[in-house]
Structure formats: structure tokens, C-alpha cells
Amino acid sequence: MSLLARWRMLWLRGAGTAQTIELAQKPRYLDIRIARDVFDRMRAHVEDFSRGEEAGFLICGHSRLEKGDVLLVREWMPVPEGAIIRGGDGSVLSWSAEFNSAVLAHAVELDATPVLVHSHGSPHPGFSPDDRSKERPLFGSFSRIVEPLPTGTLLLGRGDATGSFWLSGRNDLRFRRLVIIGDTLDIWHAATEHQAPRRGRERLNRQNLAIGPASDAKLAAAKVAIVGISGGGSHVTQQLAHQGIGMLIPVDDETVDESNLGRLVGALRSDIDTTLKVDVAYRVANGIDPSIQVVPVPERFPSKRAIEAMKEADVIVACLDRFDAREAINAFCRRYLIPLVDVGMEIRSTGERLAASDGQVIVSLPGRPCMRCWFLTDAVLEREQRERPPGYDRNPAAPGDPQVVSMNGVLASEACNCVLDLITGYSSGRRGAKVWQYDGRAGQLEQCDLPSRRPHCAACAEEGYGDPPITQTQPQVEV
User: Fold this and answer.
1) Interval 407-460: pLDDT, tens
2) 21-45: buried (b, 16+ CB within 10 Å) or exposed (e) per residue?
3) Do 249 and 222 touch, CB atoms closer than 8 A?
4) Pair 451, 271: CB distance under 8 Å
5) Is the Cβ–Cβ distance between 160 and 189 less than 8 Å?
6) At 241, is the secondary structure helix, strand, or coil?
7) Which residues are bridge partners to 362 per DSSP?
8) With 0-12 CB in 10 A as exposed, 13-18 as middle and 19+ as buried, what is 451?
9) Residue 230: which pLDDT band, with cuts at 50, 70 and 90?
10) By C-alpha distance, which of 331, 339, 369, 341 is closest to 462?
11) Sign of the torsion formed by the C-alpha atoms of 417, 418, 422 and 425
């Protein structure tokens, strides 16, 4: 069974959808994640007041986390002119019941949930009495039909937003932030939540001089998962800790062995056969800054625990050898609208000297080409299955892949630059979704554009799907 198939099976067993009465009773936050191209189309529509107010619905997948819910935007459905019932004042926030029914039916058909979006054209937005009077009958009904998914309404401001969200007929979810995923992560916080000034970390003064004082708070709020801690992953962990990432999620199921001392940053001779690699990562990060929250996951993706931890991440860095594992991570990131920074290295030797050292760093973003579009082809995956069947790397007699710690470090440093730019935007858009090709023999690193997005790509087709649907009989409610 392939990694991707096993991951889907874990989903269906409830890996991504565990719910309890206890969790449902606690106040939960709600985030929305949306690709930049969809956000730009939505914003252009609702902020065009030439005919009066405009509105539309986002159709969203869902990701349930331990303390909150994330809605993952899949589609944008503006209210068509023919459905609008305009009042004398030009108000647009009335439309036909038929359009409501069409939106709801489309969402239910996709196992998704609708979110109403409009704008008043002002910062620090607040819902009007008219908004509130129409909200309860509409979303009280919607929330029972799409249960157990949340639904509600979002009011855009100027760099902030106000939300009101419902679950099972109750209006007690707390909207927290809108995350716009493009060349950088642009975060619009809830207008109702006061963002207290954060004292900068003195140890990052030199970095702040380079990329700006606002970077400190953005980095402190970020969560990054690193999958694969041997070689390049250990470099990534160390550098992200130095950069000031607030939460690191190292994922790896292996224990340090003697061969790791040639490439695993932070590993000691006393760790051989006794210390998990994720615990080395914890020790390294904690030694740099004890305030960093490190969540070690001593398991291999796609275990249930790894899936749940990685769903929390703002960015995922994958440092894996196997192509099928990279394909599974790529599909996971597409479903949850999480930027992926993939690091790969292949070294070949004549037995006497280095023959080739080829590596790459790939930044894959929602709405842009994924690695399945061009790099992880069926031919590549089939060849790996023949030459290195699953479990090959667990055989102690199997020869390990050639590695050089300094060459791993080159790619890891560039990957960390990509993460830094995604979170802070220091390059002003010069990075984004790109690939960096590395020739270790010649010492050359070259940036290239990604190829075009492949039509009918299986991974891209599931963008924003999130958790698998929970099968249940839906109540029939007219709206």
C-alpha cells in the first residue's frame, strides 16, 4: 500500500475528524485560509461599490484542530446581479432565496460549508443592525444542515476583518484570523481582538536590522513543521530556531545511530542508539531559545499523530529521501492549503570520488503548480517502487544513500530563507513559488520558475478539501 493510500485510510478511520462532546463545549477559535488569487477576486468584487454593496459566498473545506477550526477556501461564488433584490438605498445584502438554496446545495454536494462575505469599505469593521437581523435565521438554519461543519459570515476591513460563525445552531465560535496564502503569508486578524504590542527579542536585534522590526512578532507567531530530521532537516531545525520561529514541529520516528554523527546537527556520541532524532531537535532549539515551543512527533508520516500535529503548521518543510513520501506530503499540503518547502538531494559516487551532487529546494504554494504537476511523475514513483520498495530504508543491511553535511547545509539554508520570506516578506515578492537547483560539485545554486500547472493533477484537484467528510444523515431545513 502506498503512503498516499495509507494516509487516506487513516483519514477514514478518523485521523483528521476526531470530535468529542467535551471539545465541542469549549469556546473554539476559527481561522480561514485562502489562496491569494481567490482572495483577490473576492475582494475586488465585494469592494466594488459602484452599484451598491456586493456580496458572495466562499465554499470551504474544513480542518478540525485541538483548539479550533480552520475553513479552507475552495471556491468563490459572488451573488449574481440577477439574484439581487436592491433597495432604494442601493443596498445589495438582499437576494433571492433561490440563490441561498443553490449555494447551500452546492456546498452540501461537495461536503463543504458556505461563508458569506461582504465589506463596508472601512477599517475595523463592525456588523450593522441589518447584518445582524439577517444573520440568525440564515446561519442558524445553515449550521444545522452542514453540521458538524461551522458556517457563518465574514466582513472585510482594511487589513483586518470581523467574523461571526455558527456550529449546530449556536453562534459561539470566535473568529481569529484570515490567512491569505501567496508569495507571502498575509494575516488579517480579527478587528475585535486587540493585538498587544510585543516586546522584541534582544537576541534577534541583528536580524531585525536586516529585515525589519515587524518580523520579530510575525516569526514568533509562526508554526513550522519539519518532516525528516536527519541531514538537511537538522540544519533546518537549528536555523529556524535561530531565526525565531515560535513553534517548531519536528517529525521523525528514528533513533540516532552512528552514521548520523556525520550529518545530524546537534547529535552527540552519547545519543547513539538511545536518543530520538526529534529529541535532539528539541534539545537544539531549546538550547538556542527556551521560549520556542517545540512539539516533537516521534512517528513517521502519515501516522495519526503526525497528521494532527502537521495540520497546525503555517509552513511545512519536507526533508525526505523517498519520492512516495514526498508525494504524500505534497497532497497533504494541497488539501490543507499549507505552503510546502521541499528539500531533496541526490549524490552519486564512483566509489572513489564524487560523481554528481544534485539537489533542489522547491516552494509549492496553493493555487500554483504542485510537485505532482511536474516532478513526482508516475514513472518516477513506479521506478522507486521497483528499486526501493517500502521498508527498504528500515533494513539495517541496506546501503545508505551518500550524504555530505555541508552540501545538505547549503540546501537547508536556502529552504530557511524561503520560510523566512514566506512569513516576513523580506524579498518583496522576488521569491514565491520557485525551484532552486543545486550542483554540489560546481558549487552553483540557480533559481528557476516552476513549470506550468498540469491539467487534471490529482493533488491539485483536492486543494482545500481538508478533513474527510463525516458520513451522517443531514436534516432537511428550508432557508
Assistant:
1) 999 999 999 999 999 999 999 989 999 999 999 999 999 999 999 999 999 999
2) eeeeeeebbbbbbbbbebbeebeeb
3) no
4) no
5) yes
6) helix
7) 342, 435
8) exposed
9) confident
10) 331
11) positive
| Domains of the chain and CATH, by start | 15-190 (3.40.140), 204-391+402-462 (3.40.50.720)
- Parallel, antiparallel, or unpaired: how do β-strands 68-78 and 247-251 relate? unpaired
The average confidence (pLDDT) of the chain is: 90
Q: Which residue has the cell 437576494?
A: 95
What SS3 class is residue 236? helix
Q: What is the three-class DSSP state of 47?
A: coil
Half-sphere exposure of 212 (CA within 13 A, CB side): 13
User: How far apart are the C-alpha atoms of 261 and 255, rounded to whole Å?
Assistant: 12
Query: Is residue 206 within 8 Å of 229, Cβ to Cβ?
Result: no
CB 166 within 8 A of CB 151: yes
Of 3-12, 22-31, 109-118, 305-314, the range with the lowest mean pLDDT is 3-12
pTM score above 0.85: yes
DSSP string, 323-344: HHHHHHHHHHHHHTT--EEEEE
Q: Are 324 and 381 in contact (CB under 8 A)?
A: yes
- DSSP β-bridge partners for residue 345: 359
Q: How far is the C-alpha of 292 from the C-alpha of 281, rounded, in Å?
A: 12
**Alpha helices in 150-303, H assignment, sequence order:** 205-211, 214-221, 232-243, 277-288
**Local structure of 61: helix, strand or coil:** strand
**What DSSP letter does each residue of 186-205 carry, written as one string?**
EEEEETTS-----PPPGGGH
Helix, coil or strand: residue 300: coil
Q: How far is CA 136 from CA 57, 133, 223, 295, in A?
A: 16, 7, 35, 39
